[in-house]
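Whiteboard transcription, Tuesday session. T.W. wrote the structure tokens on the left side:
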């Protein structure tokens, strides 16, 4: 366990947990998410070829889209996540280039894209509103005319209602965890303390590690306003995995923003 001299945990996110990330996410229906992405693209009459997977993590969606014929590029802030992504992509014999980039400082040279996706509430991890706005501006600059940005966020309702309070203690699972969250309505920050115990079995010593994750809640009005300020002409917001408008108790929203065609 990484700790400070006073014994308190070091604040990390996607650090020690990186080797176990795919195991933690094994229940995520990635193909369903990919189908939903394509459904929204089709609904908005866009047929992208070049796609940037921003905050791609270990690249699972990147690989799925590549097998469906898209020219995919991946970008993530975590070097550890990208190392796993490159290894798995090489094993699958797919041509995906990955870059280590901060979304708020995104710069991929002359590369341009028809679509950018940013999934699994990655934007909630950007805690500074100005950096969210910077990320929107950077993405806008990388999009071809008529291109789209598609992302999802956890809503304030989800963060305030303790969505991150989870645990797994099943004996048949080598990785056990306990997460407890606290939401501050004043700062709109959700702090999640995560404790993990990995038991590899066969008499090997268990590994114990902790991570502290923080997410910020952003309102629909804020995000749509910042997208329009960045230059996006059309912004649509959907209740998760549907084409329905947001509901009072929506816990996740998807945003699709379109760059003007010229």
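and on the right, the sequence the group agreed on:
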């Amino acid at each position: 366990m990484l700790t400070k001299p006073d014994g308190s945990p070091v604040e990390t996110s996607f650090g020690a947990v990186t080797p176990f990330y795919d195991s933690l996410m094994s229940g995520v229906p990635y193909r369903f998410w990919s189908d939903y992405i394509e459904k929204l693209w089709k609904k908005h009459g866009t047929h992208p070829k070049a796609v940037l997977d921003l905050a791609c993590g270990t690249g699972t969606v990147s690989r799925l889209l590549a097998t469906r014929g898209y020219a995919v590029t991946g970008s993530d802030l975590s070097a550890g996540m990208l190392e796993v992504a490159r290894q798995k992509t090489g094993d699958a014999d797919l041509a995906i280039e990955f870059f280590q980039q901060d979304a708020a400082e995104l710069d991929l040279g002359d590369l341009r894209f028809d679509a950018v996706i940013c999934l699994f509430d990655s934007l909630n991890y950007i805690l500074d509103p100005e950096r969210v706005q910077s990320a929107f501006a950077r993405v806008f600059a990388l999009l071809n005319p008529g291109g789209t940005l598609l992302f999802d966020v956890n809503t304030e309702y989800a963060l305030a209602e303790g969505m991150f309070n989870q645990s797994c203690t099943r004996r048949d699972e080598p990785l056990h965890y306990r997460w407890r969250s606290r939401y501050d309505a004043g700062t709109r920050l959700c702090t999640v303390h995560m404790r993990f115990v990995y038991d590899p079995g066969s008499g090997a010593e268990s590994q114990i590690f902790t991570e502290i994750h923080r997410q910020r809640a952003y309102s629909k009005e804020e995000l749509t306003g910042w997208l329009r300020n960045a230059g996006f002409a059309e912004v649509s917001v959907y209740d998760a995995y549907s084409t329905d408008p947001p509901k009072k108790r929506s816990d996740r929203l998807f945003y699709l923003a379109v760059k003007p065609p010229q």
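Someone added at the bottom: The longest strand covers residues 143-154.
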